[in-house]
Structure prediction request, 333 residues.
Amino acid sequence: MAAFAAFGGVPRVLLYDNLKSAVLDRRGDAILFNPRLVHFSMHYHFEIRPAAVARGNEKGRVERAIGYARTSFWPARQWGDLDDLNAQAAAWCAGEASERPWPDDKRKTVAAAFAEEQPRLLALPDNSYETEEVVGAKVGKTPHVRFEGNDYSVPHALVRQVVEVRATLERVRILSAGKVEAEHARSFDRGLVIENPLHTAELKKSKGEARKHRALDRLAQSAPSAQPIFALLAQAGANLGRSTQHFLELLDAFGAVELELAMREALADGRVLASDVRKLLEARRRAAGGSPQALVDLPDDARVRDLVVRPRDLGSYDQLLRSDAEVHDGDAN
Prediction:
């Protein structure tokens, strides 16, 4: 197909060696062609003509062209990768190889001879022949499909589903129910994980949403009043993720029963922030004779955990507030 595209047409007869890609079996003149090649020739309307067995002279021009490439293109050639090598080969074919004398008439170049022959080629069909490699594959526990030793990412919704992989020399496409779900540049290395950043971002978002739903479910099961509280928080435009985290900390620190009672009281007073519920919980604990609950995990260091902080009398602050109020009242008079 690449040759036909480069020629701008199709030769009427193609001579084939007896490789399995062309000839599956041969008994004299009875020949079993590869069905895929037959289908390919029907698409492009050319005749398949097999060379005789062990008769290299029938394709002498091809053999000589191979020798020419070995002696004129390859010596001292350097390249960075396959794409670089192919680009150099294409430039060599269009340049040096095309400007050499045509073997049948030294007065013409190969390019001039081809220019005369090109109009005699068959026209290319409107649609290209389907050459993709097609295999079935199953997405595992992670959103990746393995193809020829490499893992290609897919949307996380396809986990544990059977998909279809279609590959060309350049691209790998993953389809589900006929729809293209992912497309990657093909790699011929081994053991690589090739990912689309959108797939990883969707996966992280999905995991985050799942954790959020699990946290909300835990709150709702432990303290039913959490549902009306979160409805009010949503109406007020509060950060629900942060509120969820704060309420879970209160649940772990005070227990489900105490949290539910405090939430009911907060709802009755119209105060539904986590800080409001925490004040109610602390007040209930002090009324019961308990000490304030530390909601921050302390480091595993004896100097911190065993530190004793003596309580101070805060009554002097109340006196300051009263004195300040009296001053303002005097100013008003």
